[in-house]
Every structure is written in C-alpha cells, then in structure tokens.
Write a structure and sequence with these properties.
mainly beta, 2 domains, five-stranded antiparallel sheet, about 10% helix
Length: about 350
C-alpha cells in the first residue's frame, strides 16, 4: 500500500495529521505494519541562523544580556564573523556606557576570516576581531569593563556550533566563557573563538511520527540536555532528510534505508512532524508555539510556504508465530459417511433409538 501526501499545510509547530479513513490497516495474528519512507521534498524556507542557534549571553562585572545573531543565511564565514562582531560590539558599547564611560563609538578591526576568504580558501575559519572604544574626539578611551565573557548554553541552542565555541551545559554557570576574551587593555577588547565556525548547525531534517515502533535512537536526538545523551531509547524517527541550499530532498535508493515496524495492530491515522537534530521545530525553540520558522509573518506553516510532500510505503508483514498452528489440518479425501467415524454422539443407540446391534 502506498500513501502519497500532497503539498500539505502543517498545523501548529510543524505537525501534520493524515487520516486513512476507509483505507485504514488492520493486522491479523502474527502480522505487523511496516512504514517505509520512499520520498520527501520541501523547499528550505527556514534560515541557517535561526532561533535554535543564534542566542549567546554576554556578561561583565556589572550584569549580563542575551544577544542574537541575525536570523539569515550567510554566504561565507566572513559574513557570519561580521555579524557576530557587530552584535557583540554593540552590546559591549551599551555595557560601557552603563558604567559611566564617555565612549560613544566603537571600531571593529583585525576581523578574520577576511572578506576575500572563501569557504575553501586559505583559512582556518576561526573567528577573531578587536573591538576598540572611542570617545567623542574620536580617540581610544577606557571602556571600564571587567570580567567580560561570552557564554553559549546548550539549553538555549546551538550557537556554540556555529561560532566555534565551547558549549555550557550548566545553566547556573556564570563564570565560564565559551570563547577567549581579553579585556586587559583599557581601550580595546580582543575576541577569539576556539574552533572553526560553521554557517549552520542543522544538516538534516528529521521526520517523526506518533506511532509506537521498534526503532531506536540516542537520547541526544530527543533530549540534548540529558546527562546520558549517548544512551538509546525507543525512537519516533522514520527518516532524516539532507538539508541543501534550496531544497530538502530525499529519494529512496534500495527502498529500505528508512523504515519502522509499527507495534500497534490497527492504523487509522498518523501524525507527522519535522524537527532538527535536537527534536525542535524547524527554526523554533523546543517549547515554542510559533507557526513560523523564518520571516515576520505569524502563519508560515498554515497560510504560508512552510510545507512538504512525501510518499510512504505501507506493508503488512507476516511473521512466524511458534505459539500458533501455522500448518492447516489434514483434509480427508474419504466422505464422512464412509469413514467409519461416528458422526454424532448417540449414547449407545442408533438413529431410531434402538440399541446398537439389535
């Protein structure tokens, strides 16, 4: 049985209900349902930098603030580095002014990778820059900031991955910096990330269902904040789709790449949802009720262009049941009246009520 879904408008948080109506599937004894993903296609209408990987926290001795990268696609690492340096420097300027400094402008210099460097160019893709603070002259002036750090919390998102920083799992940590920041000079602050940056953090879209199955997944795919993220649990994932520049597209090669064996015997409806690698709605945080993955509208998944189409194959599979008789009983070729076997219980009398043999 094939299920071909048209271009569907999703419900809130990227969920789709598919009602099978009269085509519902019922299994008999020794049978189970197998769902196989044969094809899925959707336009990539969510940005590489989004609500799930854009937020980092900036702290100094006098306070802290959450800062976001701009939600957009970046052509290269330099564009990401420029955006990061601009957002961070603007917050540092505000902090400096809060301390009573006369600073009115900032200058960003020594930015790497530079604008001439491509992704495949001669670079290690590690972001670094200097933020210089200027007074009205303009000349460098004291910023009055101490203990400046940048923190990328796992609970908030994957900003550590795109920036090339250390993630912080402890939400109560207020002293550990995810990147290297040198604020020892009174007139400027040097910022250096630890690892090569990346333009996105979501390389696959995961297709999930509400059906109980025998599939397994690591805990980190559903609960990345869990202490035992490498342990395995029952999975609701039916497949994962590569994220490309314009499309998220998958076509089965052998027909058995992605399938699940369903535990229930009767299947009347299925719920599908698409998530990132940490079980979050595309472009939205885990607990968000938003219907928009990217853009300023509020109804991208119901009235907008956040949609997909896919083809499922549904098989009813017969398996061996050792507890039940699988071989049909032997059928006699002799008519019952000639078999010499009593046709009914007569309690010692014939059909006319006379004792047998008299």
């Amino acid at each position: 049985m094939w299920i071909a879904t048209g271009v569907h408008r999703w419900f809130a948080r990227g969920q789709l209900y598919s009602h099978l109506n009269s085509a519902g599937v019922v299994c008999g004894a020794g049978q189970y349902i197998r769902l196989t993903l044969n094809n899925l296609s959707m336009h990539k209408v969510f940005t590489d930098i989004n609500r799930n990987n854009s937020t980092f926290k900036v702290r100094y001795a006098g306070g802290d603030e959450d800062v976001d990268l701009t939600h957009r696609n970046n052509q290269n690492i330099n564009a990401l580095a420029t955006n990061f340096s601009t957002q961070l420097a603007a917050q540092l300027l505000k902090f400096s002014q809060d301390t009573g400094s006369t600073i009115i402008t900032i200058t960003i210099s020594n930015l790497t990778p530079d604008a001439a460097t491509t992704i495949n160019g001669n670079t290690d893709n590690i972001i670094s820059f200097r933020v210089t603070f200027n007074d009205p002259t303009p000349t460098p002036a004291p910023h009055l900031l101490t203990n400046v750090i940048v923190q990328c919390f796992t609970e908030v998102g994957d900003s550590y991955a795109v920036l090339g920083a250390n993630r912080i799992d402890d939400v109560t940590d207020t002293t550990t910096s995810s990147i290297t920041i040198d604020d020892s000079n009174p007139n400027y602050i040097d910022v250096t990330c630890l690892y090569p940056a990346q333009r996105s953090s979501c390389s696959f879209v995961y297709v999930r269902t509400d059906l109980l199955s025998t599939a397994l997944e690591t805990v980190g795919l559903s609960r990345p904040e869990d202490k035992f993220a490498n342990d395995t649990i029952n999975s609701d994932i039916i497949g994962r789709i590569p994220v490309d520049t314009e499309f998220c597209q998958y076509d089965a090669g052998t027909g058995r790449e992605f399938f699940v064996n369903v535990q229930q015997k009767v299947l009347g409806n299925i719920r599908f949802r698409l998530t990132d690698n940490h079980n979050r709605p595309l472009g939205r945080t885990a607990h968000s009720q938003s219907q928009t993955a990217s853009g300023t509208g509020a109804n991208q998944s119901t009235l907008g262009n956040l949609s997909f189409s896919m083809v499922l194959r549904m098989d009813v599979v017969q398996q061996r049941q050792v507890q039940e008789l699988e071989t049909p009983p032997l059928q006699s070729s002799v008519p019952a009246r000639f078999s010499g076997v009593l046709k009914h219980q007569g309690f010692g009398v014939d059909d006319y009520g006379r004792p047998i043999g008299r």
